[in-house]
Design a protein that fits this description.
Elements: H1 13-19, H2 23-31, E1 35-40, E2 43-49, H3 51-57, E3 63-64, H4 71-78, H5 88-99, H6 104-125, E4 131-132, H7 133-149, H8 158-170, H9 177-201, H10 212-218, H11 229-259, H12 262-269, H13 273-285, E5 291-296, E6 300-302, E7 305-307, E8 312-316, H14 317-320, H15 365-382, E9 383-386, E10 408-414
Parallel strand pairs: 2-8
Antiparallel strand pairs: 1-2, 3-5, 4-10, 5-8, 6-7, 9-10
Bound molecules: protoporphyrin IX containing FE.
Protoporphyrin IX containing FE binds at residues 83-84, 95, 98, 238-239, 242-243, 245-246, 249, 288-289, 292, 350-352, 360-364, 367-368.
Length: 419
C-alpha cells in the first residue's frame, strides 16, 4: 500500500512545458512504473500510462471531468462548460447529439465534400510556387467542414476563419502570445457562430436537417430546453475546429511519406489494407494529444495505489501509443504492425480510449480516419509535388507538435497532368 513512486520536486509545471509530450513517459521510463505522483499547477497529481491505466481512466464510476479541465484550456481549445467538461446522464445525452452526426451516410457525404475541396485546392496550388501544406490543408478542411455542417462560407473571410479554428488548437500547450491568439480566435469564432445560430432559430437562414448546424441550433437538453445560443455555437465549433485540426495529420502523413518513400509503392499496389495501416500508424506514431485529465470521484485503490477523492489524474496518451510493452519497436514508423493489432479500445488511444458513446472518447475518430484516407489518396495518387530542403523535425516540447516549416511543397500538379 502507498507504494506509488513519487517525484519530490515542489512543482513540475515548468518541466511539463519543457518535456512536453515526453513529460509523463520520460518519468515512467526512469521510474519503471505505470504510475507516479507529482505536483502540477500547484496541486498534487497522479500520472498514469499504459493499457491498464487507460482502462482505469475510462471507468466513469471512478473519474469525472467536472473540475478537471483548466479554465485556460476551456477559454482557448474547448469552449467553456462544453461537452468535454460534462459527466453522467447530461454528458451521455450531449454525446448522443454528436454521435448522431456520424452515421455512415453522413460520413460518406463528408468524404465527397473533402475530395472536392482537395481537387479545388490542388487547382489553386498549381503554378503557385511554394505552398505551405499546413495552412492550406486547414483551409480546405475548413471549407469541407462548413459545407458539411451547414455553415455558410464567405470567400473573403474563409481563410481567416480557418486560421482561427487552427489558432484554438495551437493555443493548448502554449503560454504567452500563442495562447492569447487562441483566446482571441475563440472569441471571434463564438461571436460569429452565435449570430448564425440566432439567425437559424429566427428562420432567417436555413440549414438542412442532419447537419451539425441544425442539430446544435435545435437540440434539446434533458430538461427539454434549447441550448443557450452561445453554447450551441461552442458545440458547433466542437465539430468544425477538430475537422480543421486534421490538417496536422495531413502534415504528419506528408512527413511520413517523405521520410519513408518506400511506402508510396506499397500504397499504390495495395489500396485497401495498406492505406488503413498507414493511417493508423500515423495516428499512433505522431504526437498530437499529449495527455488527458480527470478527477477522482471517491477514494479507491488500484493495484495497491491509493487514489484520493478530488485528485487530478493525467492519462499519458502519447506515452501509451509509444509504450514498448504494447508496441513492438514502438519508436519505428511501421504500418505493417497493424496487420496483427487486436483492436483494443485501450492501446491505440490518440483520440482517447473506451467507447465513444458512453465515455469521452473522441466523437470524430471515424471521420478523422476517413479524412486521412482521402488525404493520403490525394498525397500519393492524385497529385505530385516536390519537397524542398527544410527542417521537418518535430520537437516533443512544442505542444501541439508542428514542424517549423509547416511543410512546404513546390511544383504541385494534378497527377493526371504528370504523364
Ligand atoms: C474528444 C482527439 C478529431 C470531435 C477528443 C479527445 C481527444 C480527441 C484526445 C478527448 C477524449 C477524452 O476526453 O477522453 C482528436 C484528434 C483529432 C480529433 C487528435 C484529429 C484531428 C475530431 C473530429 C471531431 C472531433 C474530426 C468532430 C468532427 C470531438 C468531440 C470530443 C472529442 C466532440 C468530445 C467528446 C466528449 O467529451 O465526450 N478528441 N480528435 N474530434 N473530439 Fe476529437
Amino acid at each position: 500500500q502507498g507504494q506509488t513512486p513519487q517525484e519530490h520536486t515542489p512543482d513540475n509545471s515548468l518541466a511539463l512545458l519543457k518535456d512536453g509530450y515526453d513529460f509523463i513517459f520520460k518519468r515512467r521510463r526512469e521510474m519503471e512504473t505505470e504510475i507516479f505522483r507529482t505536483r502540477l499547477l500547484g496541486q498534487p497529481a497522479i500520472c498514469i500510462g499504459g493499457k491498464d491505466a487507460a482502462e482505469l481512466f475510462y471507468d466513469t464510476s471512478k473519474f469525472q471531468r467536472s473540475g478537471a479541465i483548466p479554465k485556460r484550456i476551456q477559454k482557448s481549445l474547448f469552449g467553456e462548460n462544453a461537452i468535454q467538461t460534462m459527466d453522467g446522464d447530461a454528458h451521455r445525452h450531449r454525446k448522443m447529439l454528436f454521435m448522431s452526426l456520424m452515421s455512415r451516410e453522413r460520413l460518406d457525404v463528408f468524404m465527397q465534400l473533402l475530395a472536392q475541396e482537395w481537387e479545388a485546392a490542388i487547382g489553386r496550388w498549381e503554378g503557385a510556387g511554394e505552398v505551405e501544406l499546413f495552412g492550406e490543408s486547414q483551409e480546405l478542411l475548413h471549407r469541407a467542414a462548413c459545407r458539411w455542417a451547414g455553415v455558410p462560407i464567405e470567400e473573403e473571410t474563409v481563410r481567416n476563419r480557418a486560421d482561427d479554428m487552427g489558432a484554438m488548437v495551437e493555443a493548448f500547450g502554449a503560454v504567452g502570445p500563442r495562447h492569447a491568439a487562441g483566446r482571441r480566435a475563440r472569441r471571434r469564432t463564438e461571436e460569429w457562430l452565435e449570430g448564425f445560430i440566432l439567425d437559424l432559430r429566427a428562420g432567417e437562414f436555413k440549414a438542412d436537417e442532419g447537419t451539425a448546424a441544425y442539430a446544435m441550433a435545435f437540440h434539446r437538453d434533458l430538461q427539454d430546453r434549447e441550448l443557450d445560443s452561445r453554447m450551441a455555437a461552442i458545440e458547433l465549433i466542437n465539430i468544425v475546429r477538430p475537422i480543421v485540426a486534421i490538417g496536422r495529420y495531413v502534415v504528419f502523413t506528408a512527413i511520413a511519406l517523405h521520410e519513408h518513400p518506400e511506402y508510396r509503392e506499397k500504397l499504390a499496389a495495395d489500396e485497401g489494407k495498406y492505406r488503413q495501416w498507414f493511417v493508423q500508424e500515423t495516428r499512433r506514431y505522431y504526437p498530437f494529444t499529449p495527455f488527458l485529465g480527470a478527477s477522482v470521484i471517491h477514494d479507491f485503490t488500484w493495484k495497491g495505489h491509493e487514489f484520493e477523492e478530488g485528485t487530478m489524474v493525467l492519462l499519458d496518451v502519447y506515452g501509451t501509443t509509444h509504450d514498448p510493452a504494447l508496441w513492438d519497436e514502438a519508436d519505428k514508423f511501421k504500418p505493417e504492425r497493424f496487420e496483427n493489432w487486436g483492436g483494443s479500445p485501450f492501446d491505440l488511444i490518440p483520440q482517447g480510449g473506451g467507447d465513444p458513446n458512453s465515455g469521452h472518447r473522441c466523437a470524430g475518430e471515424w471521420l478523422t480516419i476517413d479524412a486521412m484516407r482521402v488525404s493520403l489518396e490525394f498525397l500519393t495518387n492524385r497529385m505530385a509535388y516536390d519537397v524542398p530542403e527544410q527542417d521537418l523535425e518535430l520537437s516533443l516540447s512544442r505542444m501541439p507538435a508542428l514542424p517549423e516549416s509547416r511543410f512546404v511543397i513546390t511544383n504541385v500538379r494534378l497527377a493526371s497532368s504528370e504523364a
